[in-house]
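Researcher: Batch entry, complex prediction.
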Amino acid sequence: MNFSLIKKDIILLFRNRPALITISALFLIEAVLILYSRGIIKAENGSDISRQFNFMQNYVLIFYFPLVLANILNLSFSLSKEKGSFLLARLIPFGESNFLRSKVSSTVILSVLLSFPFLYSGIFFCGLESFQKLSFLTATSFYLLFFSISLCTFTVYYAVCFFDGDSCYEPGVKGIIGMMFFVSAFVLSSFIVYSKGLSHYYAYAVGFRHDYPNLEISLMIGTGFVFLILTRIMLGIAEKKLIRE
Amino acid sequence: MIKIRDLKRNFKEYDFEINCQSLTVDTGTVCGICGRTASGKTLFSQVVSGIIKNYSGSIEIGMTELSSTYRKKIGYIPFKNVLYNDMTLKEMTVFLLNQYKVPESEFDLKLNWFSQFYDIKDLVKRRISCLTDGQLQYIKYFVSLIHSPSVLVIDEPFNGLGDESAELVRSLFEEVNRKGVTVLALSSHEDYLKKSTGCVHYIIEGKIE
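Model: Structure tokens for the complex:
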């Protein structure tokens, strides 16, 4: 991993006031949301298990918001700084690959920082005791991490392949619509898969099943891994495109 | 040394062809290529620098055929600014040193060396976006020489510089030549090129003569 490149991408992102304000505002909104939902749960004096699952599902749904936003910030304030289709990268040995991968890495770091603390503070700070189980948290973390990496990889691939590199990767109308469609489809399919996993866990948590749903959890993580592999192949295509141009 | 033989590169999107039968630039010399606007200077400079590929013929840098692993030996100064506007000069330079795997301690040495031509020490902490066109042109020279390339390709070396700066550029060329750097400068300013370089070739509609 090229830390100097990741540092460069983070500098590019954080030197922009709009990006900084957006990130700060997002942290604030997340904190308010957590405090608000904690208030509700405490007022109910220890909510029942189905209510906890309801909250958990809502948290996971909100989890995707900072994830998508981190990707938009990357495209708007970091990728757009690469002039002339990564001309600078073309002057450095293996520059295209390294520059592209660092864009993904920096977005993953940002999205993990924005979304995972929200989810975990929702589980622990609001007292969703049903989910404070190591095996469940591990499965959730792996699945969502795989998905986060996949989404960040996909957006970079899409921008490099379908936005105008000579105009600092400014998207056209078709580019934006296509991006919105694919990102929505991505998020929706991920949420459906996770909801399925959650419903299996619910069956275990309420006592309908006595064994922990290992097969279902493995399938969930496996699906996340498939996302990861597919998007890694896509990034390879984007790298080849840059090298070939 | 730069040695080009039977170079051809077709640009279908521009309906344009770069054509160079033979061009040799000896080690430690400066060669100028003069041409009007839209004569193909930028495209030619990018082909020679290895940025644009899929050409026929051969380009040799030193004794080695141009390849992607040879990028470390080439310094390229494009006409456009490709540096990151939001980074300071020091951040930008240190970043490039890391990419070329050159020790960061080289920064101060290069800074002192370059400042004998144009004092950029005061600009070190300034963001690239806060530099004037003239300052930016000198910064481009500094940044492209930071990894000690053996060949320097410059597209429009006098861009943003005044009349008196041609002399400064010439002394810079002489100094890098002494260090064994081969320079290929492409410009539309024939007078400046003649003052600053040993030989001048012409590019007309993509053909080097």
